[in-house]
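Supplementary Methods. Inverse-folding protocol.

Structures were first reduced to a discrete structure-token string of length 760. This string, shown here, constituted the complete conditioning input.
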């Protein structure tokens, strides 16, 4: 995005930038070449030259619009200047200063300028600086370990006898220590109160109806801290009207902040002492419209089993319970815990259908997973506990990170910390699955449930089939347009797609284990071949055979699938929506990185019962999609699936060979560079996504990026081209089959395949 003569940027509901694009401001003094934002967040810009000149900013405004749900507090636009410049004293100023016993807040305007070709343009940025007084004596740090998920801060240790610097990371945690008079009792295993408990204050702006649920989400972590030997370690407090000292900027107050905003998100950041990893202060933020996401999840994932979850407005208790678990999840981040996307994998499908199990354990072994609501439970199961809870892993992680040990040097703790982890290393409830976007380990996925994605997704589809006939009657309100019906329809479609994504990750997947000496388990374990075949069968049955129960449902007569956007409601027609989402699945299943991983297994184990090769996978798909009785007409859904499969083969193979042949760009437009125009739809569905993008500090998974290298000389293109030649033979034998639309379809496929194979 090129923005000339741009100056000043502040974060509001939008990213409000100011510029003098039409006319130079009277004292314009800088030239900005680019304002850079993540493409997936940006929806457009609005330059209104009729808007009055803003004297306070010395500029005309530009509005940069970002997707609803974008976390503006973590969004930092990057400005590219023609010539970098330092802030100018005469153009900069301190706007305000607030002083507290342990920190100072300074808000300032910093400006620089640049002159080029006789034009001088300024850049002004508003900065808030928080100067925090650190403790005289740093907390004793605790070294991190890849087998348990804590945010961390890196350090290096040097000594004269080393041949290599020692690399260590300190976990982020609060300073919890027993009182001096309680040390011996603590060592004996008695519960004691810490010298200084963790206090979370509820923002007085919080709607009173939700305060009890937020407090419940906070104090339920007490159970985990009791596992670490501390009672009353975490406290939820309310600000009283006569409390004149409370200020949200005061570092002495860790606050659960309520923001009356249409933004749909929540987060739990912290302020860290870099010397030790000590969490000094935390600010859990939840935006009002996070409840819109919760409402969508609740109705979609539990509506089939819970009548209270079906309406446009949910009972207070139902929404309150969801607010509780969001509060608890975000507090987990503020306690130092990363996401544990492997926690849901510890739970068998049968357990998710057990009333007694779910009542005790919820849906996963950790509330730090994205295991939202129990979509596996069936109406006949009688399940009442449908949300996650503080689980086994959470207690284990808090004990590992917070149990006080009487040592002087963190190195002395290492044998004990390792022993705690070794004790449970073969128990899936204690396993930590790192957050990743690579999609290599199917055990660590967002929004999934259970250790069997195929079976869990099958149950999930049964519930979606129950819901879709009721889209209209669950959402209709006298005198209102069918927006809620369209919104629910969109949610159903994306839930169907999410199930497919969960299953797809098994194909070419590896279980990536963090192991230590003495742990008898392999570090890289391919997903069993039979389960990969089972996963492809699911995709054939539920995606590549277009689900007419979904895209042919009568609900589409009343409303198309809808989502909110800055320009209004976006509507998606069923046939084209199905076509693009199906294509996305085909293309991602045929991705070179996935196929290379499958060849990696063949190289190590040979061909046989333990391997599932790309050739076998494509044969399974071709037999299901193409090898059918001839001489008949194909439905529009069948033609769509065949064409999507062929095009995905062509585009992916052409992109692989783009550096070796001029044909590399042929038919590229069919897939928008092979990514499909629906990839952004997942990112642009705010009603269905909470923190959809992992933060950089949350990504710790070994990504095994070697699978991305030198794909041109791998076997992937050979396999795809062989399958294309096979398909060419099939379609050439079908020219006289079926009705005119079917014959046209086969002729078109012939031309596409011949062009791709350079036979024209």
């Amino acid at each position: 995005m090129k923005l000339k003569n741009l100056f000043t940027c502040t974060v509001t509901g939008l990213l409000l930038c100011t510029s003098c694009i039409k006319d130079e401001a009277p004292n314009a003094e800088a030239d900005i070449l680019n304002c850079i934002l993540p493409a997936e967040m940006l929806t457009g810009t609005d330059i209104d030259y009729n808007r009055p000149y803003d004297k306070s900013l010395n500029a005309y405004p530009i509005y940069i619009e970002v997707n609803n749900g974008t976390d503006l507090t973590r969004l930092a636009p990057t400005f590219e200047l023609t010539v970098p410049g330092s802030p100018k004293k005469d153009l900069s100023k301190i706007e305000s200063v607030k002083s507290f016993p342990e920190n100072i807040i300074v808000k300032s305007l910093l400006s620089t300028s640049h002159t080029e070709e006789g034009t001088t343009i300024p850049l002004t940025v508003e900065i808030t600086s928080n100067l925090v007084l650190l403790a005289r004596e740093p907390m004793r740090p605790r070294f991190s370990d890849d087998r348990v998920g804590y945010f961390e801060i890196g350090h290096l240790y040097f000594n004269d006898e080393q041949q290599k610097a020692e690399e260590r990371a300190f976990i982020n945690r609060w300073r919890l220590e027993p009182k001096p008079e309680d040390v011996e009792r603590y060592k004996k295993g008695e519960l004691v109160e810490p010298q200084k408990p963790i206090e979370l204050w509820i923002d007085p702006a919080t709607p009173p109806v939700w305060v009890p649920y937020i407090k419940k989400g906070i104090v339920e972590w007490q159970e985990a801290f009791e596992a670490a030997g501390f009672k009353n370690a975490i406290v939820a407090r309310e600000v009283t009207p006569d409390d004149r000292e409370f200020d949200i900027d005061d570092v002495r107050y860790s606050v659960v902040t309520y923001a009356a905003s249409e933004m749909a998100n929540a987060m739990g950041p912290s302020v860290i002492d870099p010397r030790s990893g000590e969490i000094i202060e935390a600010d859990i933020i939840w935006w009002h419209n996070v409840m819109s996401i919760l409402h969508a999840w609740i109705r979609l994932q539990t509506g089939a089993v819970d009548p209270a979850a079906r309406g446009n407005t949910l009972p207070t208790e139902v929404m309150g319970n969801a607010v509780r678990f969001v509060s608890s999840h975000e507090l987990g981040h503020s306690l130092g815990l990363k996401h544990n996307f492997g926690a849901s994998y510890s739970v068998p499908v049968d357990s998710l259908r057990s009333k007694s199990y779910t009542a005790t354990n919820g849906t996963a072994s950790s509330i730090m997973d994205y295991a939202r609501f129990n979509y596996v439970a069936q109406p006949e199961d009688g399940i009442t506990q449908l949300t996650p809870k503080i689980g086994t892993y959470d207690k284990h992680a808090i004990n590992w990170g917070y149990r006080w040990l009487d040592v002087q040097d963190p190195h002395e703790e290492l044998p004990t910390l390792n022993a705690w982890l070794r004790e449970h290393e073969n128990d899936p409830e204690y396993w930590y699955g790192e957050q990743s976007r690579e999609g290599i380990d199917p055990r660590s996925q967002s929004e999934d449930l259970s250790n069997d994605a195929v079976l869990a997704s099958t149950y999930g589809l049964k519930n979606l089939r129950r819901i879709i006939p009721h889209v209209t009657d669950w959402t209709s309100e006298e005198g209102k347009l069918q927006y809620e019906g369209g919104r629910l329809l969109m949610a159903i479609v994306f839930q169907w797609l999410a199930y497919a994504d969960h299953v797809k990750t098994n194909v070419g997947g590896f279980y990536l284990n963090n192991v230590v000496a003495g742990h008898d388990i392999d570090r890289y374990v391919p997903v069993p071949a039979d389960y990969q075949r089972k996963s492809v069968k699911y995709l054939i049955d539920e995606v590549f055979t277009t689900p007419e129960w979904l895209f042919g449902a009568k609900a589409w007569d009343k409303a198309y699938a809808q989502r909110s956007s800055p320009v209004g409601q976006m509507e998606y027609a069923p046939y084209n929506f199905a076509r693009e989402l199906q294509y996305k699945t085909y293309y991602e299943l045929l991705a070179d990185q996935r196929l290379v991983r499958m060849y990696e297994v063949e190289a190590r184990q040979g061909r046989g019962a333990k391997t599932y090769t790309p050739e076998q996978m494509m044969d399974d798909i071709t037999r299901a999609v193409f090898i059918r009785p001839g001489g008949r007409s194909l439905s529009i859904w069948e033609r769509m699936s065949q064409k999507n499969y062929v095009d995905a083969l062509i585009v992916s193979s052409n992109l692989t060979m783009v550096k070796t042949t001029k044909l590399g760009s042929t038919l590229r437009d069919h897939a928008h560079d092979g990514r499909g125009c629906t990839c952004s739809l997942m990112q642009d569905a705010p009603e269905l996504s909470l923190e959809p993008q992992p933060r950089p500090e949350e990504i710790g998974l070994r990504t095994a990026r070697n699978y991305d290298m030198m794909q041109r000389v791998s076997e992937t293109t050979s396999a795809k081209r062989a399958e294309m030649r096979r398909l060419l033979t099939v379609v050439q034998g079908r020219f006289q089959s079926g009705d005119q639309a079917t014959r046209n379809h086969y002729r078109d496929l012939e031309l596409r395949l011949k062009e791709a194979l350079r036979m024209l």
